[in-house]
Amino acid sequence: MLSGPVRVTVVVDDDAVDTVAAALRAAGMQIDQVLGTLGVVTGAVPADRQGAVAEVAGVVSVTEDRQYQLPPPDAPIQ
Amino acid sequence: MLTAQEPTPPQRTGRYVVVFRDPSVDAAALLASAAGMTDLAHSREFAGQAVDAAQVDSGGGVILAELGVAVVQAQPEQIRALQDSADAGPQVLSVAPEQIYHVLTPPAPPFQDTAELTWGLQAVRAGTSPRTGTGIKVAMLDTGFEMAHPDFAGRQLTAQSFVSGQDAQDRHGHGTHVTGTACGPAAPASGRRYGVAGQAQIFVGKVLSDSGSGTDANILAGINWAIANACDVVSMSLGADVPDMNPTYTAVGSRALDRGTLIVAAAGNNANRPGGNPGFVGAPANSPYILAVAALDQQLAVAPFSARSGSGSGGQVDRAGPGVDVYSSWILPDRYQTISGTSMATPHVSGLAALWAQASNARGRELWAILTMESQRLLAPSADVGSGLLLAPQ
Fold it and tell me: What residue ranges of chain A have pLDDT lower than 50?
């Protein structure tokens, strides 16, 4: 069974964010956000497209999205 | 409090401590023949060699037989005669003026909240700073903010949610607490002051949901927004307990500094120091370009939960702030809450960074350098507190 798309954060060359974002889309990435100021693109990549996305020119890093969780409001240490 | 004390000149008694090479030497005979020192008590004259202090003080001194040491009342000429003597001189290892010793100064009493100020504001000297953060934009990326809080009525505040389906109103409490510490007013509607930069412009970015959860996509959207709005300081009291450095935050921290935005983040609460586990700095604070903040208690000791520097690049603690029993604003109807964590230490540093940005006009890497210069060094290891406790400009 194929695993589903993986949510990722892609750091791209910050001189060419829009160009690299277009290339990422062409490589199969489903783009949610193009954060132009940071040079970061977020979205999801199908399992069979991960290699292609990592090889796009102008990509600095591809990192799987991480979850952050605060303790509940009544926890003494936050 | 752990502060460096000026060295004080030694206080002396007028007596000398003579150390003989051989403890079995007949010290009484040598001191009498070479230097005319008589009237010396000898420790063997006392029951159990427990020398009677009163008797020693009134006489010429005492010979401590087991040590080969004599403490003698003598004139400088007598000491010279002893050292020059052909018989006694070679037997004397050293002569030094006797000094007065004191009990080591006990630590100052711990900081505590007063009617005017939280202990944390006292520790960082925010109460006496002429700076308020006027003209400085501080972004608080957290669970949002209690928009109806009376202490912030009329305050200039920009809010944006990056959590789908939820507005920027805080329904957890954490975001309201950290925003209060960094940017709370100098004169709250009621109770003591708890905020550092009372006139900073507040940018509330909700990147954690009402249940306190978020992802990199939420957080990065918030950072992007803060930089696009030219925020000078970004405060992030959040983290994941993963030791490996995340390349995303390495790039993001560095690019933010390039744009003049300093990102401050919590080192993490994954330590259990009483249990022997010092923990590690988690993401995103483990980026070399994000300022990682540890938590101190009321005696400026490292909090038991506060994470230590990890081994990898970027995994270091950069600074420490008050993070135990921190009183600040909370969602209504509670209005105030006292909690602990590196989450609470972080906004102290963020607020202070705003004061220093105002005072120095520095931003980005230059501001980071100033914060390092202006931190009070602590006796705790740098792996635990970095360059110490950041103080407010005076």
Answer: 1
Q: What is the mean pLDDT of residues B121-139?
A: 98
Q: Which helix (H) or strand (E) holds B385?
A: helix B382-385
Contacts of B318 (CB under 8 A, 6+ apart): B291, B292, B293, B386, B387
Of B221, B247, B283, the CB nearest to A33: B221
Instruction: Count the Cβ atoms, other than its own, within 10 Å of residue B90.
Output: 10
The per-residue pLDDT for range B244-296, each reduced to its tens digit, is 888 999 999 999 999 999 999 999 999 999 999 999 999 999 999 999 999 99
Hey, are the CB atoms on A32 and B217 less than 8 Å from each other? yes
Cβ of A11 within 8 Å of Cβ of B305? The answer is no
Q: What is the mean pLDDT of chain A?
A: 93
Supply the ipTM of this predicted assembly. Answer: 0.90
A38 contacts B255? CB cut-off 8 A: yes
Q: What's the pLDDT at B48?
A: 86
Residue A75 to residue B339, Cβ atoms within 8 A: yes
What residue spans of B229-363 are helical by DSSP H?
247-258, 342-360
d(CA A31, CA A59): 14
What pTM did the predictor assign? Answer: 0.78
Tens-digit pLDDT profile for residues B54-78 = 777 778 889 998 899 999 999 989 9
Q: What is the C-alpha separation between B241 and B173, in angstroms, rounded?
A: 21
Q: State residue B4's pLDDT score.
A: 46
Which B residues, 253 through 272, put their C-beta within 8 Å of a C-beta on chain A?
Answer: 255-256, 259, 269
CB pair distance less than 8 Å for A7 and B215: yes
Chain B, 335-354: which have a CB under 8 Å from a chain A CB?
339-341, 343-344
Interface of A to B at Cβ within 8 Å reads 7, 9, 11, 14, 32-33, 35-40, 42, 60-61, 63, 65-73, 75-78
- Catalytically active residues of B are 142, 174, 343
Backbone φ, ψ for residue B332 (5° rounding): -75, 150
Q: Report whether B158 contacts B229 (CB < 8 A).
A: yes
Q: Tell me if the bond preceding B7 is cis, omega within 30° of 0.
A: no
Residue B328 · residue B178 · CB < 8 Å = yes
Within a 13 Å sphere around the CA of A34, how many CA atoms are in the beta-carbon half? Answer: 16
Residue B153 burial (10 A CB sphere; 0-12, 13-18, 19+): exposed
Contacting residues of A for B208, CB less than 8 Å apart: 68, 70
| Residue with tokens 């990435």, as numbered in its chain | A29
Nearest CB partner across the interface for B174, out of A11, A36, A78: A78
Residue in B208, B217, B252 closest to A65 by CB: B217
